[in-house]
Amino acid sequence: MTPGRPVPPPLAKPITVEHPPSVATNLAAAYGATSPGSGLVPLTVLRREPKDDDVEIGIEFCGLCHSDVHATRGEWRIPPYPLVPGHEIVGKVTRVGAAVTEFAPGDRVGVGCMVDSCRECDSCLDGLEQYCERGNVGTYGAPDPRNGDAITQGGYSTSVVVDRRFVLRIPDALDPAAAAPLLCAGITTYSPLRYFEVEEGDAVGVVGLGGLGHMAVKIAKAMGAEVTVFTTSETKFQAARELGADHVVLSTDPEAMDAAGRSIDVIIDTVAAPHDLNPYFRTLRLEGALFQLGLPAEDMPPVSPGLLIRRRLAYAGSLIGGIHETQEMLDFCAGHGVASDIEVVDASRLNEAYDRMVAGDVKYRFVLDTATLHQPSERADA
Ligand code: NAP
Ligand code: ZN
Ligand code: ZN
Fold this sequence. Notes:
Layout: E1 27-32, E2 41-46, E3 54-63, H1 66-72, E4 89-96, E5 108-111, E6 114-116, H2 122-125, E7 137-138, E8 143-144, E9 150-151, E10 159-163, E11 168-169, H3 176-179, H4 185-195, E12 203-207, H5 211-222, E13 226-231, H6 237-243, E14 247-250, H7 254-259, E15 264-269, H8 278-281, E16 284-292, H9 305-310, E17 314-317, H10 323-336, E18 342-345, H11 350-358, E19 365-369, H12 376-380
Parallel strand pairs: 12-13, 12-15, 13-14, 15-16, 16-17, 18-19
Antiparallel strand pairs: 1-2, 3-4, 3-10, 3-19, 4-5, 5-11, 6-7, 8-9
Helix pairs in contact: 4-5, 4-10
C-alpha cells in the first residue's frame, strides 16, 4: 500500500482482472452487474498503475445512459460479467504518466464512450475514432489490446485510468455533474447535427425526449434551429417547451403527425425501443434526413422505400462522436450555456433509476454521485 493513498473499503465482490500484483493498491469501489438479471451490486475494480501516457482520474460523477441498461441486462449481447457500466465520466486528475504534458493533477476532465482505438486506420486518422476499422475500445465491457486484453470497466466507480488521447477537458464554465451527460448524450446528438451542417433557420425534429433527446433539443436550439419534439408522452409537452422546443407533437396521434408533414429538414431519433419510422419520414422535406441514434434490442418495422425515393430522403445512423469533435462539443456547450438537466442519485438508487429510465420517468438524465459508492451500508449487502 502506497503511503498517503486512501485505503479502499474491503472487497465486496472482487472482479478478476489480470494485472501484475504490484498494482494491487489501485482498487476502486464500483457498482456493476454480475449477470443479466443481477441488477447492479457493489463491486471492486482493480485499475492499472498509470503508464507513461495514462491519466488517472478520481471520478466525481457518471451519467446513466440507456445504453448502460441495454448492456448490463444483456439486451444487445451477453457481455463479459462482472460488468461495471458508465461512459459519461467527469472527475479530477489524480496522477499522470511521464509522457503526459496536457493534463495535470487537479484538472477537471471527462471520459466518454471510448478509451482507445487502433490510432492508425483511415477513420482514426480522420478523427473518427468511434468508427475505427478494428473497432473502438469501449469504456466498459471491451478487451483492451494495449493492456493485455483486460476487459474495460466503466465509470460507476471511484477512479479510472485512461490514455491521455481519450481524455477530454471539461471547461470551467460547466457544472461538473451537469456536464457528465455531455460525454455521451451530448456528443451523440451534436455529431449528426454538425454532420448535417444544421444552421440558423433549419428545422430539426427530435424523436423521444429522454437523455439524448433533451440534449438534441438544447444543442439544436443553440445552433439556431427551429425545433419540433415528437414524444409519446403528453406529460412532457410543457417540459419540452421549457427546454426550448418551438413545436411539440404527440407522435401517437396520426392527425398531429399528418399536420407536421413536410415541415422538418433533419430528424434526430433517440427512441430506445422498436418503432415505426415511416410516419417520421412523412414529416421530412425534400432531401431531408433521419438519423437513427437509438439502438433497440429488437428489430424495427421496415422502412417504405417509396417514401425515401420520392423525396430523396436519407436514412442514416450515427455513433457517438470522435475525440476532437467531443472536445469541440464541450466547448460549444460551455460557450452557449448548454448542459444536461439532471437528477443526481446515490449508488443505493441505481436500480430504481434504471427502472425509471425504462419507464421514461426521468428529467432527463440520472447522474451518479460517486462519493456514495463508499457508503458502508450498501457494501454490506453485497
Ligand atoms: P432514454 O433517456 O431512456 O430516452 C429514450 C426516450 O425514447 C424516452 O424518454 C421516450 O421519450 C422515448 N420512447 C418512446 N417509446 C419508448 C419505449 N417503448 N421505450 C423506451 N423509450 C421510449 O434513453 P437515452 O439514454 O436517451 O438513449 C436512447 C437510445 O439511444 C438507447 O437505445 C441508447 O442505447 C441509444 N444510444 C445510442 C448512441 C449512439 O451512439 N448512437 C449513444 C447513446 C445512446 P418520449 O417519452 O418523449 O416518447
Ligand atoms: Zn451512452
Ligand atoms: Zn482505427
